[in-house]
Backbone:
C-alpha cells in the first residue's frame, strides 16, 4: 500500500505555463542529483545513518522504563530550534489535540510543556502550573553544546525548582553531545542521567536521535516504527532514480523554483496534525540554505484556515511562490441536516466533514493552478508514526540535495552563531569584552523613535 504520494503535475509548465518547470530542466537537474548521490553514498552525511543505527535505543528504553514507575504528571522539555521543533511536530501529529486538557485523552501519560522560548510571561506561567506537582515533574534538557543561552538559563531556573522535592536527581535527564559540552559537566557533578546525539548530527537534523525519540517514547509513541518509516524512505531513495525518486524530484523542483524567481516556498498542510511540521520545515530550509546572500525563504500556512487569510495572495499576488501542500484526512464527522428549511445549505446536509475538507483541498489546488501558481501535493494515507519518520527523512535529504545544487554547506549556521555571541557579550560573559564594547556602542547610538 502506498503511504505517501507526491503529485508534481501542477508545478510543471504544462499546467501553470511560464511559471512552471520545463521537463528538460527537470531532467537535467535530476541527472545532476543522481551523480551527486552516487558520490554521496561512498561517504554519507551522519544523519543518513540514523534510520539503521537505532542509536541508544536500549538506553532510551531503559530510562523510559524507569520513568514509567515514577507516576509523572508533568513532562517539561527545555530546548530551542532543532532541540524542540521535531518533538513538537511528533506530539501534535500523534497525540490527541487536547492531550494536556483532559486525563481521558492522555492514556496515563503526563502533560507536556515544551519551552522553546524564554519569554518571561510564558516561563512564569509554566512554573506556576508545574510547581504544585514539582515532585511529579520530569525535566528533559536538550542542548548539543549546553551553551545555548536560552536553554541553559531555563535549566538554571528549573534546576532550583526541582530541588524542592526529594529524589529530584532521578527526574532530570539531559540530552547532549556524546563526549563534550557543559551538560556533560553538569551531569557528572550533579548525577543526572544523560542521553546523547551521535557524532556529526546538528540540531535541525536531530529529530531521529534521542532529541526527538526519547520524549516521544515517554509519551507512548512507537519510536521503532518512526525509525522504520525513515528507513523505508532511505531505501526508496537508494532504490529509485530520476523522476521515480521522491527526494530527487522534490529537491530538483524546489531548486528550480528558486532559480526561476520563486524563492518563497510555502508549506501548507491540509491537516492540523501536520501544522507543526511546517514549522520544523521552516527551520530546516532557512537555517540550512540561507547563506552567501542567497537561499529560499520558507513560509507556513495551514489549510483550510489560511484560505481565508493568505490564499488571495497566493492566487493573485506576485508569482514568487511555490506551494507545498500536505494532505491527510481519515476521521469522519457527518454533517446533519440541521437546517432543512434552508436551500442554500442543502448541498452540505448528510455529507461528511471529511468530504468537505477534501473538496477544499482540491479546490485550492485548482485555484492555484488556474492562476499559474506552481503547487505540489504530498498526500498521506494516514498520519502515523511510520509516515512521520518517512517525512522527516525525506525533507532532510531534500535539504542536503538542495545544498549541493545551491553550492552551500547545509550543515553550518554562521548567522545564528553571531547572534549568540552578541547575546553572551551583553549578558557579561567573560572573554567577550570586545563584542561587549560593540554592543554597548550599538545600544547607545541615537535612534529615531515614535512613541505612542
Residues:
Amino acid at each position: 500500500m502506498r503511504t505517501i504520494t507526491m503529485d508534481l503535475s501542477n508545478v510543471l509548465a504544462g499546467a501553470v505555463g511560464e511559471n512552471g518547470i520545463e521537463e528538460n530542466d527537470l531532467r537535467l537537474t535530476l541527472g545532476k542529483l543522481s551523480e551527486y548521490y552516487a558520490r554521496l553514498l561512498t561517504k554519507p552525511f551522519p544523519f543518513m545513518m540514523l534510520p539503521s543505527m537505532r542509536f541508544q535505543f536500549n538506553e532510551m528504553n531503559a530510562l523510559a522504563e524507569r520513568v514509567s514507575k515514577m507516576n509523572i504528571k508533568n513532562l517539561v522539555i527545555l530546548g530551542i530550534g532543532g532541540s524542540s521543533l521535531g518533538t513538537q511536530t511528533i506530539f501534535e501529529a500523534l497525540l490527541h489535540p487536547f492531550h494536556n486538557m483532559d486525563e481521558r485523552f492522555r492514556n496515563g501519560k503526563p502533560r507536556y510543556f515544551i519551552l522553546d522560548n524564554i519569554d518571561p510571561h510564558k516561563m512564569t506561567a509554566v512554573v506556576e502550573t508545574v510547581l504544585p506537582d514539582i515532585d511529579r515533574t520530569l525535566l528533559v534538557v536538550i542542548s548539543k553544546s549546553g551553551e545555548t543561552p536560552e536553554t541553559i538559563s531555563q535549566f538554571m531556573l528549573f534546576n532550583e525548582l526541582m530541588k524542592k522535592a526529594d529524589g529530584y536527581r532521578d527526574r532530570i535527564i539531559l540530552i547532549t553531545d556524546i563526549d563534550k559540552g557543559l551538560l556533560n559537566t553538569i551531569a557528572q557533578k550533579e548525577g543526572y542521567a544523560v542521553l546523547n546525539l551521535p557524532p556529526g548530527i546538528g540540531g535541525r537534523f536531530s529529530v531521529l536521535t534521542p532529541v526527538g525519540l526519547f520524549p516521544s517514547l515517554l509519551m507512548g509513541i512507537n519510536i521503532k516504527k518512526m525509525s522504520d518509516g525513515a528507513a523505508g524512505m532511505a531505501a526508496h531513495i537508494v532504490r529509485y532514480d530520476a523522476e521515480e525518486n521522491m527526494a530527487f524530484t522534490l529537491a530538483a523542483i524546489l531548486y528550480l523554483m528558486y532559480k526561476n524567481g520563486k524563492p518563497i516556498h510555502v508549506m501548507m498542510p491540509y491537516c492540523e496534525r501536520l501544522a507543526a511540521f511546517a514549522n520544523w520545515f521552516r527551520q530546516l530550509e532557512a537555517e540550512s540554505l540561507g547563506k552567501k546572500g542567497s537561499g529560499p525563504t520558507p513560509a507556513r500556512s495551514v489549510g483550510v484556515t489560511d484560505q481565508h487569510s493568505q490564499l488571495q495572495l497566493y492566487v493573485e499576488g506576485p508569482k514568487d511562490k511555490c506551494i507545498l501542500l500536505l494532505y491527510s484526512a481519515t476521521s469522519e464527522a457527518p454533517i446533519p441536516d440541521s437546517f432543512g428549511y434552508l436551500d442554500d445549505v442543502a448541498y452540505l446536509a448528510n455529507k461528511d466533514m471529511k468530504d468537505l475538507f477534501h473538496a477544499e483541498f482540491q479546490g485550492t489546488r485548482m485555484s492555484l493552478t488556474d492562476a499559474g501558481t506552481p503547487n505540489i501535493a504530498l498526500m498521506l494515507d494516514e498520519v502515523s508514526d511510520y509516515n512521520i519518520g518517512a517525512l522527516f527523512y525525506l525533507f532532510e535529504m531534500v535539504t542536503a540535495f538542495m545544498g549541493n545544487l545551491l553550492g552551500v554547506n547545509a550543515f553550518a549556521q554562521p548567522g545564528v552563531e553571531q547572534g549568540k555571541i552578541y547575546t553572551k557579550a551583553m549578558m557579561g560573559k567573560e572573554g567577550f569584552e570586545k563584542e561587549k564594547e560593540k554592543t554597548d556602542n550599538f545600544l547607545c547610538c541615537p535612534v529615531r523613535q515614535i512613541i505612542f
